[in-house]
Each structure stands twice: as structure tokens, then as C-alpha cells.
Amino acid sequence: MSNAMPMRELKVGEKAKVVAIxxxxxxxxxxxxxxxxxxxxxxxVGRAPLQDPVALRLTGFTLxxxxxxxxxxxxxxV
Amino acid sequence: xxxxxxxxxxxxxxxxxxxxxxAITGAxxxxxxxxxxxxxxxxxxxxxxxxxxxxxxxxxxxxxxxxTMEEIVARNVVADQRPDVVIDVLNAGxxxxxxxxxxxxxxxGAPLVLALNxxxxxxxxxxxxxxxxxxxxxxVPVVETVARTGEGIPSLLEATVKCAAANQGKKWEPLAISYxxxxxxxxxxxxxxxxxxxxLTDRYPSRWTALKYLxxxxxxxxxGREIHPVSAELEEIVKSVAKHLESTxxxxxxxxxxxxxxxxxxxxxxxxxxxxxxxxxxxxxxSDKIDSVVTHRFLGPLIMLGIMYLIYQVTFTFSExxxxxxxxxxxxxxxxxxxxxxxxxxxxxxxxxVIDGVGGVMGFVPLIMFMFLQIALLEDSGYMARVAYMLxxxxxxxxxxxxxxxxxxxxxGIAGGCAVPGVMAARTLRSPKEKLATLITAxxxxxxxxxPVFLLFVxxxxxxxxxxxxxxxxxxxxxxxxxxxxxLRHTVIKGExxxxxxxxxxxxxxxxxxxxxxTWERTWQYIKKAGTVILAISxxxxxxxxxxxxxxxQVAAFDAQKTVVQEQIxxxxxxxASVEALEEKLASIENEQAEVxxxxxxxxxxxxxxxxxxxxxxxxxxxxxxxxxxxxAKEVIVSTLGTAYSLGEVDPxxxxxxxxxxxxDPNWTPSVAVAFLLFVLLYxxxxxxxxxxxxxxxxxxxxxxxxxxxxxxxxxxxxxxxxIGKLL
Lengths: 78, 728
Prior knowledge:
By secondary structure, chain A is of the alpha+beta class.
């Protein structure tokens, strides 16, 4: 898992796989509810005009979350 | 045999659940509130053959935790109302994530029917779903639907009726999936304890309760503690499992549970249920393309500004005509009553209290309708989520939400709005703290009713720079709203920002039926709920400005004066002399009487009593009464000032005589005028807005807070302005 990195560092257009979710409580729950669990594949499809939040493409839908929320998600590029 | 089947409709937000609800029930639906919270309670009816179906629309949720009101409502309805069948509407295109809720419903044990909605889109995406296989593996009926066109709805209802018949009188059979070697033993131990002590077993399956303990679900644990001491034992088990997980896997039970649920879903879907052929022809991909323009770094904000401006224009321009009809109608009604009723209290009550009150309530209806129609359009099309997405960074800084922009703009963020529909626009905000801060600060905006007051004073004191000052007032409103939000979110509405994690639903054409139903139900709620309260308060305000009556001797004195002048007019008329001067004299006596009557009323007494409090701001009793009257509606400030200055009824649109009087009054220095302008901008919202705030926050406490806090703020700002003015 040497190439695990925080999701914030992904650039628009990059694809990655979730390695770990470290958020707890409500945020952790919300992230998991949306299908962001270890193994899920995603692609960064856009960023808001002020670079935050970020838009992610998952299987069949698009999701957005803030950079400081993305910090709880470790990913590796695929 | 005819029997009522109780059916609950569950599903993720954006799964087409509401469309399905409308397709099933048509106009036969009813919207209310769950007691004590702002979650809408929608119910509807339909018949299938001999069976009457009672459909309960659960709030759209992704899960069944205790983190949001919506999720608590959804699971409580299932647990307490014991529906015969639960229909779960799934967005077929995102099947895996949508099944996450279905699994949780199955764990509760309710007989389930899955509606695989938006099958047309899923097919276009190149996605194939083997319905029979899915149904077989999950052991629940599965029906394909396209709720927008109504396709598949009859088969869905048929399957529902069949499912109800098959499960009638049977015990619910909750699904039990494995949660792995760490949790399963603990679960078994907890289930044994729960069953031995009958902990909540009348409401929830024991395994479900055990899972909720492992998820540290506040609501269930609270319930458990109140009912039985065994709760402590369960919590001990959870603690030791959590400790073990943390030390061995660096994770915690909640995360493990979610992982295993998704694992279970994946294991089912991978058995040939779903095949994705070609992701290039993806509908979501098309949506992403639209987003590359609509949320573009430069184009995005420009397009958004344009759309906001358009909504504002449409709301206030298109509603002008119907508002005019209402005004004319109630004006005519008032005049008719005026002409046909005997002078006296009853007439005054009917004309100034009831007719004006009902007219006031109805006058807002076209505004509210047009605004909700457009908001429904933005929400149903998917654009609203983009607004939140683009503005989140800015508004988050002030403790607000991207969606706060809508209430601000409609309230008068573009001068001339109205805080009543503005406050109601906050309904799109799903984060409670951000919503509350928005509700309290949106009324600062320069609404249309404040404008005549501003125009009057700006005309008198800033003749040279009228446009500039008006613009500065609008900017001051924005600055105050944002800064005060930030302060509130660090004090009385303190707390972490609600997680933003939000779906960006694909763009869709809204259905006309959906738009009309949304608009109608929200407007009707306003008329029904707010309307009655508003009418009651307007009668109260009428009473405060009418009672107590002027003492009889004073009335007699005025009458005597009037009789004298009237006689002089009569003689002058008889001799053919000019009566103009005399009639003016008569009018001025009447105006003086109106002034004295107003000063003598409760509202007047309040104004006089407030003089010592308001003296640091430089307001006299006249201004104070006008401000008290402004609580009814801000434009009343102008007409009340007119009465207080003995000018009779002043038309807010044409207040030239009043402007002259104010210009001559030495009390009105420029700094007092600025203080007054800011005071009017910031002080208590009009009571119609207060009632709307109560409705949206579902609490009189916060509605009252907005009155007291905003007035306190206005006072502080006004004092500061006057005191600084003295130094300069």
C-alpha cells in the first residue's frame, strides 16, 4: 500500500480506488452511504469554480464532497 | 373481498421515488408534517382491483441511521406502522448503492418489493439487469419501472398486492447476513440477551437492534437504556468488540458493518445480475459534459448569476398581475364594506382587521407560487445541487450552505424581493444549522416593502446620490447577513458544518405534473398553516392601533371644532364664497384627531414609552409608533409616520408632503436618518415573515429569537451610527 494517498491530491480526470476511510461518526456514515467503501473505484470529474468541493464519478452516479472531507479518504491511482 | 393495504414507499433521493408516488396516487394525495419536525408527511390512495392501497411516502434516504430526521422518520414508520408491504424505489443505473437501503429494509423484516426505476436510462447506459436472477437471489419480487412515463407502475402495484396477500398474517422474516468473524459471535451473544429480556422486540427484530448497538445508534441506545438494564451489558459487548477491531484491524464496528453490507451486495450483483456493456454512451457521462460548461470555472458563476436574476425577475414580474387582482378585489371588498356598514368598531374591525388581513395573506400567494414553481424546476432538473456545489466554498466560510443563496436573493438580495417567499425558499436546505442561520439573516435583505421607506428618506437626505445610497443599503444588507451568520454559527447556532457529501444527480427534464404538484402543495401549506396565524396577528395589530379609544371629552372637543368649521363651510357654500381654505382646515382637524387617536392607542403608548430607550438613536414617539406599525408590514412605516405627523393617510408610493415635514423637523439630522435607514433594514422581520420562520424552523423559539435578536442588532447599529455622527 505504499502508493496510498489522500484523495485531495487527485487531479481532474484521474481514476483511483478507495483504500481506506478514516472518517468516523456522521461524516463516515455519509461517505459510506454513498458507496465510498474500500475497493470502490472513482474518477475525479470536476472541481467547483473555487477548487472546492470536488466532483467524483462512481459506478452509475456523480458525487460531490469537500476537500476537507476527502482528506479522510485514502486512495491509490489506477 | 376489499381490504386496505398499507404500503410504505422508500428509496434514495434522486431515485424517482417522488415521481413514482405521483404516478401511483395522482392527485389523491395529502401532505402534512410529522409532529415536532419539519419532515413532510405525504400520503395517498389508489385502488387495484378490489384492493384499496394506502401509500405512505417515506422521506428519501440513503440509509436508516439516526443521523438525520429523515432517516429516523423512515425507519420509525416501518417499525411502528407495520406496513403490509414496503416498496423500495431504486435508481437502476446505480443499482449497487441503491441496494444498500434495500438490504437495511430487509434486515428490518418488512415484506419488500423492489421497483427498478429509470430502467430506460439504465438500458441506454448499456446496462443489462437480470431481473429474475436478482429477485431469486434476494428472494423479493422485483419489477422494472419508468415512473416518468408510468411504465411498469401497474405491474408494480400488482406485485405489491400479491406480496401483501402472501405475507398476510405472517411474522416478518428479517434478513440475516454475515458480518464476519469479528462481529458475528458478538451479534449472536447480543441477540440472545435481547431476546431473553425482550428488549424492543415488539418494534424491531433482535438482530437489527444488536446491529444498531454496534453502529452506536444514539436513538436506539437511548431507547434501550430507558427500557431495560440489559442495555448496559450490550454496550459492554460493543465496547470490547470495538476495542478488539481497533487493535487488530485499526477499524471500528460501523465501518465493518458497511463493508459487509456492500460485500453482500457485490456478491449478489456479480452473479450475473448486472452487465455493463459500454460506459461511453453513459447518460451520467452526458450530464458530466453539461457540467463541464455549467459548473465551468468562469462560465459557471456567470450562468448561475443569470439564472438567479431570471428567477427573481419572473417571481416578481409575473406575479405583479395576479397580485394586482388580489389587491383590487380586496380593495373593492373593503370599499363595499366601508360604504355599506355603519360607522363604528365593527366596521373598523371588518375593514382594517379582517379584509386587510385576509388580503395581506392572499397578496403573497402569487409570489409564493411563482417562486416555488421555479425552485421545483431547479430542484427537479438537478441544477439546485450544482448551485450548492459552486457556492459551497464561499458560503461555508460564513457557516452557511451553498443553497443559502436562494433565500437571500428572493428575500431582497436583489433589492425589491420579499422575505416571506425568501424564508420559505430555505426549505431546500437539508442542513439544520445552516438553515437556521439562513432563516434568521435572510430578512435583513432590502425587501420591496422597505423600499418606499428608503426612497422617502434617501430622497430627503441624499438627494444628490440616491442611486448610490440605495445600492449601499443593499450591500449593507448582504454584509450584515453574512457577518451575522458567521457570528451566530460561532455562538447560538454553534457546531460543525453538516457534511456536504452530496449526490450531483444527472440533469433531467422535470415532469409538468411533478412541478405542479410540488408548487400546489407548498402554496396550499402556506395558505392553510400560515394564513390563519397571519390573520389572527393582523387583527391583533389592528386592535393595538385602535384601542383604547380617545376619551369621550376629547372626541367631543374635536367634534365641536369640526361642527364649527362645517357650519362655516355650509354658510360659505350658501353665499357662493370659496370653501377651499375651510375644507383644508376641516381636513387638518381630522388629521390632528387621527394623530391624537394614534398616540392614545396601545401602539402609541408603546411609542411614547419607548422614547427614553430610543433617545440615544434620536427617534421620537412618532418614529417609534411607525416602527411598531412596521411589524405589520414594512411599508406601513410610511403611512403611520404620515398619521403621526398629522398628515392623514399617506400613500407610500407618493409621500411628498411627508418628505417636506421630515425635512423641516429638526430632530431628523443626517446621522439620525442614516441610523433610521439601517434600523429599518435590520430590525424585526414583519410578522408574516416571523410566521414563515416559525414554519420553516418548526419552532416559535427561533421565530421569537429573530424578532428580539434582529431588533437588538438594529438598535446597536443605529446607536453606533448616531454616536459616531456626533463625534464627526
